[in-house]
């Protein structure tokens, strides 16, 4: 690291050119606002650091009621979690700050770091999947866009092409009568194992019947994924204690957990409880709160 050359691009094209020139094996490793990559030289492979902090498009947080939320890839995760529109309109994202443990990515990492590395942050990916978020990608061939769900599904391979990088995360504007929540719970029998569940509900006019749901689950060490069986079960269902308990049971029964989970007997029960908590919170947040809505509008 001491002999690595550091570059500070000031525009997207310059950053893409630098990363394209880094033709070493593997994808660049992202740490905070910096990309660590390998480039060929007459003397062999050398390390280069591309620091993105001067690229304005990567360092912004914006919100409006029509277009939704935009978070630059170089923004510290702590910043948008404290952003008032996030706290009021995207409580499911604000839950990530409450659920995070010291030392996890939410303390000092960036969105680009969490989503651009092979193992996306569980505290971030699940709520973004439920919200239908996408990432804007820039590279030598211009712009592209991919959903966070698809990006996470490709994490075992090379998610981005040479010279490409995440510019920002784009979250659609929240729908009326919708609400979401994220819950993470620890599992006994592992050193740092935990399960995470994110739930997003869209309610009918009666605010009791669900007309759409997105549920995402992850056990530490595994890729995040949707639970379509529960989403289908909740659609058209009146949300009460009986339906919530049944949804939690289905989550625990149908979620594909890694091999490690088979040796931890309490994972299904922890997963069921977390799912029930997330659905209950999502139901509460789907009901209008006029005062909170007015505060978000004034921001």
Summarize the structure.
Helix content is 36%, strand content 27%. The chain is an alpha+beta fold and 299 residues long.
Q: Could you give the topology of this structure?
A:
Blueprint: E1 5-7, H1 12-21, E2 29-31, E3 34-41, E4 44-51, E5 61-64, E6 68-72, H2 78-81, H3 84-89, H4 91-99, H5 105-108, H6 111-116, H7 122-130, E7 134-139, E8 142-147, H8 148-153, E9 165-171, E10 178-186, E11 194-203, E12 210-219, E13 225-226, H9 228-234, H10 241-254, H11 259-262, H12 267-285, H13 290-298
Parallel strand pairs: 1-4
Antiparallel strand pairs: 2-3, 3-4, 5-6, 6-9, 7-8, 7-9, 10-11, 11-12, 12-13
Helix pairs in contact: 4-7, 9-10, 10-12
Structure description:
α4 runs antiparallel to α7 (122-130), α9 (228-234) runs antiparallel to α10 (241-254) and α10 crosses α12. The termini are far apart. A hairpin with a 2-residue loop joins β3 (34-41) and β4. The chain has 3 domains: 5-51, no CATH class; 56-171, Uridine Diphospho-n-acetylenolpyruvylglucosamine Reductase, domain 3; 178-285, CO dehydrogenase flavoprotein, C-terminal domain (Enolase-like, domain 1), CATH 3.30.390.50. 36% of the residues lie in helices and 27% in strands. It is elongated and about 70 Å long. Strands 5-6-9-7-8 form a 5-stranded antiparallel beta sheet. It is of the alpha+beta class and 299 residues long.
Identify the notable features of this structure and list them briefly:
disordered C terminus; 36% helix; 13 helices; 5-stranded antiparallel β-sheet; 299 residues; Enolase-like, domain 1; alpha+beta; 3 domains; Uridine Diphospho-n-acetylenolpyruvylglucosamine Reductase, domain 3; elongated
């Amino acid at each position: 690291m001491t002999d690595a050359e550091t570059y500070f691009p000031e525009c997207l094209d310059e950053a893409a050119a630098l990363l394209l020139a880094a033709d070493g094996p593997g994808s660049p490793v992202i740490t905070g606002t910096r990309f660590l990559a390998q480039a060929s030289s007459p003397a062999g492979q050398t390390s280069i650091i591309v620091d993105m902090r001067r690229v304005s498009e990567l360092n912004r947080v914006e919100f409006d009621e029509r277009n939704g939320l935009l978070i630059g890839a170089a923004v510290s995760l702590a910043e948008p979690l404290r952003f008032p529109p996030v706290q009021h309109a995207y409580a499911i994202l604000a839950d990530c700050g409450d659920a995070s443990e010291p030392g996890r990515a939410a303390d000092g990492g960036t969105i680009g770091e969490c989503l651009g590395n092979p193992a996306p942050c569980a505290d971030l990916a699940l709520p973004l999947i439920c919200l239908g978020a996408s990432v804007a990608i820039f590279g030598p061939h211009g712009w592209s866009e991919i959903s966070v769900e698809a990006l996470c599904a490709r994490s075992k391979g090379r998610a981005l092409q040479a010279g490409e990088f995440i510019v920002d995360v784009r979250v659609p504007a929240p729908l009326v009568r919708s609400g979401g929540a994220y819950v993470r719970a620890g599992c006994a029998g592992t050193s740092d194992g935990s399960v995470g569940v994110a739930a997003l509900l869209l309610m009918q006019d009666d605010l009791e019947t669900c007309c759409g749901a997105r549920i995402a689950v992850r056990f530490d060490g595994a890729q995040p994924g949707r639970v379509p069986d529960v989403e289908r079960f909740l659609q058209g269902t009146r949300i009460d204690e009986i339906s919530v308990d049944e949804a939690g049971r289905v989550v625990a029964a149908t979620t594909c957990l890694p091999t490690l989970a088979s040796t931890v007997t309490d994972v299904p029960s922890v997963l069921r409880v977390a799912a029930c908590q997330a659905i209950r919170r999502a139901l509460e947040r789907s009901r209008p709160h006029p005062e909170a809505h007015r505060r978000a509008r004034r921001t």
